Amino acid sequence: MTAPLLSPNWCPAPARCIPLAVPAGLRLRGLVGQAVTLSWAPKSSADTLDFTLDPTDWLQGTGDYLASVSATVPTATGQTADLTVLWASLINGMACLFLGGGVPGTVQTVMVRVTTQQGRSLCQPVFLAITATGAATVAATVPTLPDGTPVPPNALALSDMVILTTESGPPYLLA
After folding, report:
1. Interior angle at CA 61, CA 60 and CA 62, nearest 5
2. How many angstroms separate the CA atoms of 93 and 60, rounded?
3. Residues 6+ away with beta carbon under 8 Å from 36
4. CA within 13 Å, CB half, 128
5. Which of 65, 73, 47 lies closest to 6 in space, CA to CA?
6. Looking at beta carbons, which pairs linking 22-25 to residues 24 or more positions away fall under 8 Å?
7. Is 113 or 79 the better-scoring residue by pLDDT?
8. Where is pLDDT greater, at 126 or 145?
9. Is the separation of the CB atoms in 145 and 169 below 8 Å?
């Protein structure tokens, strides 16, 4: 088993990092537990920030680690100012998302799907309030590959800004 690569040049902000919740094991005691709801600290529509889920507690004692992460915003309504997932990546073993935009005065649901190296998977809804202050703002842009794939900060790049990918074709030059 190979541990995830570290990302020494970029670290998620601790203020927007929450633990991936572990539901209580009440079924064994004949009790029905409540669903665990997670929410990140609010952001304004104009903010473009990283938001992180830490799987340490969820994977404790398993020897497992995250292998992939993806995210969607099912509460998006098609407006230009909708909350947008600019990229999703594994950074220092955690699921990290870069989110921008959002309609002011709303609470958006971000569905984060993680899969581990050993095959565990979880689709976790996380709520994010968009503060009512300020005007609606379109999400900022991030560097992308020629096919439109966003480039997260922990992408492997050569010194001449060639981004290495897992595709069978040649590496992409970051424009």
Report:
1. 95
2. 13
3. 21, 22, 23
4. 40
5. 65
6. 22/57, 22/58
7. 113
8. 126
9. no
Distance CA 17, CA 139 (A): 21
Full 3-state SS string of the chain: CCCCCCCCCCCCCHHHEEECCCCCCCHHHCCCCCCCCEEEEEECCCCEEEEEEECCCCCCCCCCCEEEEEEECCCCCCCCCCCEEEEEEEECCEEEEEEECCCCCEEEEEEEEEEECCCCEEEEEEEEEECCCCCCCCCCCCCECCCCCECCCCCCECCCCEECCCCCCCCEECC
Per the structure block, which two tokens stand in for 102?
Answer: 């959002």
- Joined together, the tokens standing for residue 89 give 């990546």
Question: For residue 135, which amino acid is it?
Answer: A
Assigned token pair, 35: 């669903």
Q: What is the predicted pLDDT for the residue at 112?
A: 96
**pTM tops 0.70:** yes
